[in-house]
Amino acid sequence: MLRKLIHSLRSLIVTPTCPICGRRLQHSEGFICLECNLSAPYTLLWQSRENAMEQRFWGVVPIERAAAFLWFTEGSRYRALIHQFKYHGQWYLAENMGRWFASELKVGDFLEGVELIVPVPLHWRRRIMRGYNQSEHIAHGISRATGIPCCFSAVKRTVHNPPQAGMKYINRWDNINNIFSVPHPERLIGRHILLVDDVFTSGATLLALATQIHRACNGNVKISVATLAASSHLVL
Ligand SMILES: [Zn+2]
Description:
Helix content: 25-40%
Order of helices and strands: HHHEHHEHHEHEEHE
Structural class: alpha/beta
CATH class of the largest domain: Alpha Beta
Radius of gyration: 17 Å
Strand content: 5-15%
Strand order of the largest sheet: 1-6-5-2
Shape: globular
Number of domains: 2
Bound molecules: zinc ion
């Protein structure tokens, strides 16, 4: 609450600048400047069915749609943006990016039938250390732009697993299988939910969560997946 208040007061006093190039923002621009908006590495995965991201789920768990917003490439300024909210406390960037993503998703049919947004949960210990769950802020941003409600209580991360970054695919899968629980499947049964996370690298976290939800709902749930970024290795 206090953090939000400080951020609001700061934005009243300080002239907003583009978090990517640092240029002063015009009133007509959103949270990034027009130039950075136009040159963003959009994946456009939300415009195509059976895309490379959806294919990661094939044979593991049925899903409706999957898409990431931006390609996550080494040295990219957009990658730095995601690091700012993930590791440097700038949670409000996650919400702004969620809104930006949603403005693109709303144009096509990707969100058709989606009734509930479910962010990937953090373990309570990591949440305390970071002070927030960045995926919840992304979910908030998408929710505010679309009117689709969020659900933060249906799923839980029960195991405090080590960070995923830098681990190999097989190890990642061993590391995260069965780390989620679904204490309230009745909130998801019969609904079409959108799982939201920051980055899709191997996809292991989202595969594990989707599998757990599908099991807990006895298959009576529709699942779509949206992340702010995906590793460009996905299409190599
Ligand atoms: Zn810019």
